[in-house]
Automatic annotation (TrEMBL):
Residues 1-39 are annotated as: Disordered. GO terms for molecular function: GTP binding; ribosomal small subunit binding; rRNA binding. Residues 74-81 are annotated as: G1. Belongs to the TRAFAC class TrmE-Era-EngA-EngB-Septin-like GTPase superfamily. Era GTPase family. Residues 121-124 are annotated as: G3. This is Era-type G domain-containing protein. Residues 184-187 are annotated as: G4. The lineage of its organism: Eukaryota, Viridiplantae, Chlorophyta, core chlorophytes, Chlorophyceae.
């Protein structure tokens, strides 16, 4: 059995004192001898590992405490991940100018003394599913909607906004969760166009509320968050209050590497690539933690593109990824990257299952 540590939120100012499960690993694990006994700190992968709980975690919920799930949906590149990061107060999801960067359903957790809201950052809605990978990605969207108490639809106001929810558009007989619409990038269109879109979404998509703003600039994000919290039912705290996500550290390490691939490579390379963390070893200081990440591509011709002439491209990828990984983990790492080819992995159920696309924790 493998224990999964929850990711804790840190100060947006310094990030030096993340509390909770994700930073328990950075504490020294050298045994301290006391007479004839040893006091050992277990690693989080040990079946006997138990996380430390803070006073905030042990505090009782107030009688009116709320908790529940909110699905964030929209077309690729609409700004869903940016919104999730803004609400949670920490970067959890890949943000790129290229569409379809989110593949898994990623949970972000926003907590306060009076509530806990679990947000699903879902893959972008696509009409035509070309691979089994895209089928699993759309399954994540449907499952998130079905599991939620409320829906936030992020709509790019300058990219065919009335088609943003073509695949999922609540009609007159809709009996699902209430939905709010965020007209993202609305500052780039006229006030008349904004008012017309707001009316259209209320009339045609049964939007409970339409917010006008920018996820990137955090305009009206606080009001949108307040709306979502108001839709949560009464319920207990589901995760420790300092938790920002339920995903393990190595998941976010793989996402950081994948984000850098989107940044450095063009055309089909980012979409054909998958990251597998083959090894993740914590070491006693002063040694660096060891991470071996395998980059999987679909064609042999893509391997030399990832590596680059004289290994320059993969070296730059490793440098950029390692810096962000160390910032995220708050400890030094030795990152080793390798590349291998697996033809048509995106259409292989076995490969998709191996990389978590059939795991209910991710989909």
């Amino acid at each position: 059995m493998t224990r999964t540590a929850c990711l804790r939120k840190g100060s947006s100012q310094s990030r030096q004192k993340k509390q909770g499960l994700a930073t328990q690993q950075k504490q020294q694990r050298r045994p301290t001898k006391q007479k004839n006994s040893y006091n050992l700190e277990l690693q989080e992968t040990d079946p006997m590992y138990l996380p430390y709980l803070t006073d905030e975690d042990l505090a009782e919920d107030p009688p009116d405490h709320k908790s529940g799930y909110v699905a964030v949906i929209g077309k690729p590149n609409a700004g869903k991940s940016t919104l999730i990061n803004a609400i949670v107060g920490q970067k959890l999801s890949i943000v790129s100018f290229k569409p379809q960067t989110t593949r898994h359903r990623i949970m972000g957790i926003a907590s306060d003394k009076k509530y806990q809201m679990i947000l699903f950052d879902t893959p972008g809605i696509i009409d035509k599913k070309r691979t089994k990978l895209e089928e699993r990605m759309m399954s994540a969207v449907v499952d998130s909607i079905q599991s939620s108490e409320a829906i936030i639809a992020v709509v790019d106001a300058i990219d065919r906004p009335k088609e943003a929810l073509a695949m999922f558009q609540p009609g007159p007989d809709w009996s699902g969760p209430p939905m709010a619409v965020l007209l993202n990038k609305a500052d780039l269109i006229s006030e008349e166009a904004v008012d017309e879109l707001a009316s259209w979404y209320k009339e045609n998509c049964r939007a409970d509320k339409v917010f006008v703003g920018s996820a990137k600039m955090k305009t009206n994000v606080a009001d949108l968050k307040e709306w979502a919290v108001s839709k949560l039912p009464l319920g207990p705290t589901l995760y420790p209050k300092g938790t920002a996500s339920d995903q393990p550290e190595k998941f976010f390490v793989s996402e950081i590497i994948r984000e850098k691939i989107f940044f450095l490579y063009d055309q089909e390379i980012p979409y054909c690539s998958q990251i597998h963390i083959a090894e993740f070893k914590e070491r006693r200081r002063p040694a660096k933690d060891y991470i071996h990440a395998q980059i999987l591509v679909e064609r042999e011709s893509q391997v030399p593109i990832i590596i680059g002439t004289d290994g320059i491209a993969i070296k730059k990828l490793g440098q950029l990824a390692r810096k962000d990984i160390e910032d995220f983990l708050e400890r030094p790492v030795f990152l080793e990257l390798s590349v291998q080819c697996s033809e048509k992995w995106r259409d292989s159920k076995d490969m998709l299952r191996k990389y978590g696309y059939f795991d209910p924790a991710y989909v």
